[in-house]
Amino acid sequence: MQRIYLDHNATTPLLPAVLDRMTAVLREQFGNPSSVHHFGQQAKSVIDEARTDVADLIGAEPSEVLFTSGGTEADNIAIRGTAEALEATGKRHVIASSIEHEAVLNTLKALVRRGWRTTLLPVDQTGIVSPAALHEALTGDTAVVSIMHANNEIGTIQPIADLAALAHQHGALLHTDAVQSAGKIAIDVKALGVDMLSMSAHKFYGPKGAGALWVRRGVRVLPLLTGGRQERNRRAGTENVAGIVGMGVAARAAAAKMTEEALRLAALRDRLEAGILRVVPGTAVNGAIESRVPNTTNISFDRVEAESLLIALDLEGIAVSTGSACSSGTLEPSHVLKAMGFNAHRTQNSIRFSLGAANTEAEIDRVIAVLPAIVEKLRSLTRTPARA
Predict the structure, then answer these.
(1) What is the pTM of this model?
(2) Each residue of 94-105: pLDDT tens digit?
(3) Domain boundary residue among 223, 253, 283?
(4) Counting CB atoms within 10 angstroms of each CB, which of 2, 49, 235, 252 has the fewest?
(5) CA distances from 157 to 34, 162, 196, 273 (A)
């Protein structure tokens, strides 16, 4: 059976060059980067090289890049670390959007349990946070604002530069979770005007277990882990050298092909989207059409439960998602679609298709070809019997 992978927002396969480099590092640069001898300095050197590659991906300085275990830890350091650093000033208010990843939303809940006040901003039916909503929520007590760059479920890109400018006018820091945009679209942290930005290697063909937080020079962040002085005293613990190097290789590869690949993926996504809307009645796209990452579309299928459709597609060899991989296994409706104002059924009948480097027109056409029969069969199973 031909297998088609359309769940790249959940994770991506390792680039062969990433795997080769990581294997070589595990074998040859095995020293502890904190050691002053030859082996330790070899390991430190490859980390420094990777730090430069990751910084180049987002237009940053290498010294501002803090390596983490992934996007979740980066989000936690950004929000908890800055919140704790600013706690002594009396600022105890954090703002985020209502469609953030659980790594942000659950971190806010943890702060609430410690006496912090939080505000979740609404979004419109395209999933966009309006600057007006942020302006209304900001107070002199606001310490941090966290708004994701691109949403993991619908791909919508937020007006981060405008939101950052507003946050700064009120003396607040702005963090953006760029896990779903880094490596897919061009990012310049200076143009965005943000103070912190989170990334995760496995979203752009790097390894799982490696991520980074960019922290603007001058922003104080308290470490979550106490111990050694690694990462300029901001994250204790011996570095994951191979993972960090793999992230660097993936970042360099993403930067080199980004423009061309974004155009290719957008064309494939549009082909898939148009085909589904044409051949399957009762379908609609969720989220912004223009302002979104090029590889993502989220489509609702009327009178079909998303979980049933996902399983049926998997039986055909097609891997898709109902939303965030971190929320899989739950029966809860999508909090993203719910926040966008959709009714209960639509929050549970939507499928995310997220494309990647290996996808082809032939694969897209096969998905379009098999979907009508699958959807019709599922709908027939849920039809209300005619009354006698």
Answers:
(1) 0.95
(2) 999 999 999 999
(3) 253
(4) 2
(5) 39, 12, 17, 18
Q: Is 51 a known active-site residue?
A: no
Query: What's the rounded Cα separation, in Å, for the pair 87 and 280?
Result: 53
Asked whether residue 327 falls in the same domain as residue 194, the answer is no
For the chain, state the CA radius of gyration. Answer: 22
| Contact (Cβ atoms closer than 8 angstroms) between residue 216 and residue 58 | no
- The pLDDT-based confidence of 330 (bands split at 50, 70, 90) is low
How far is CA 174 from each of CA 94, 171, 185, 195, rounded to the nearest angstrom?
Answer: 10, 10, 20, 5
Structural domain span for residue 333:
4-11+258-382
Task: Spell out where the chain has E strands.
Answer: 4-5, 65-68, 93-97, 117-121, 142-146, 173-177, 196-200, 211-215, 283-285, 296-301, 318-319, 350-354
CA dihedral sign of residues 372, 373, 377, 378: negative
Sheet holding 173-177: strands in order across?
65-68, 211-215, 196-200, 173-177, 142-146, 93-97, 117-121
Identify the active-site residue in 219, 266, 326, 378.
326
